[in-house]
C-alpha cells in the first residue's frame, strides 16, 4: 500500500485550510471551473453562489448570493453571477453549489474564488 500524504492544515494558518474535495488539488483554471458548471447543468442540478469571509468559513453559514438559479442552463450566466459575487466581495471565499432537487441535497460544492485574510 502506498503512503498516505498528510495535508498540513491548521486553524491558525488560514492559507492552509481546505474546503470540500477540490481544495486538495491545485487551483482550477477558468476552463476547469467551466467544466464543473457544465457538469452541474447536465445533471439538472440548480446552481447557487455563496460567499463568506475567510475567517468565518468553518463556523458560520455562508451568505447566499441572490437566490439559487432554479432551472438555469446557461453556463455563461452562472459564471457571470459567480464573477459578479467575487467582484462585489473580493475578500470573501466564493463557492459554487449544485443542488440536486430530487435527492434534496448538494450534488456538488466547490470554492471557486478564495478570499484574502485581512
Give a description of the structure.
The mean pLDDT is 87. The chain starts with 29 loop residues before the first helix and ends in a 5-residue tail after the last strand. With 118 residues, the chain is α+β, with helices and mostly antiparallel strands. The chain contains two helices and four strands; from the N terminus they run αββαββ. Helix 1 (30-42) packs across helix 2 (75-88). Strand 3 (93-100) and strand 4 form a beta hairpin. The protein is 23% helix and 23% strand.
Brief synopsis:
With 118 residues, the protein is of the alpha+beta class.
Tell me about the biggest sheet? 4 strands, antiparallel
Number of strands: 4
Round the Cα radius of gyration to an integer and report it.
15 Å
Strand order of the largest sheet: 2-1-3-4
User: Helical residue percent?
Assistant: 10-25%
Overall spatial form:
globular
Derived from helix and strand composition plus strand pairing, the structural class reads alpha+beta
Give the averaged pLDDT, no decimals: 87
Strand content: 15-25%
Provide the succession of SSEs: HEEHEE
Uncertain residue segments: none
What is the CA–CA distance across the termini?
42 Å
Count of DSSP helices? 2
Which key terms come to mind for this protein?
118 residues; alpha+beta; four-stranded antiparallel beta sheet; 23% helix
Topology:
Blueprint: H1 30-42, E1 46-52, E2 63-65, H2 75-88, E3 93-100, E4 105-113
Helix pairs in contact: 1-2
Amino acid at each position: 500500500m502506498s503512503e498516505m500524504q498528510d495535508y498540513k492544515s491548521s486553524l491558525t494558518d488560514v492559507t492552509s485550510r481546505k474546503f470540500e474535495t477540490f481544495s486538495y488539488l491545485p487551483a482550477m483554471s477558468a476552463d476547469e471551473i467551466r467544466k464543473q458548471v457544465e457538469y452541474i447543468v447536465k445533471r439538472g442540478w440548480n446552481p447557487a453562489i455563496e460567499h463568506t469571509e475567510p475567517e468565518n468559513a468553518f463556523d458560520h453559514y455562508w451568505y447566499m448570493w441572490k437566490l439559487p438559479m432554479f432551472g438555469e442552463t446557461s453556463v455563461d450566466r452562472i459564471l457571470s453571477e459567480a464573477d459578479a459575487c467575487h467582484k462585489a466581495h473580493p475578500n470573501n471565499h466564493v463557492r459554487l453549489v449544485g443542488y440536486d432537487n430530487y435527492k434534496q441535497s448538494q450534488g456538488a460544492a466547490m470554492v471557486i474564488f478564495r478570499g484574502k485574510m485581512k
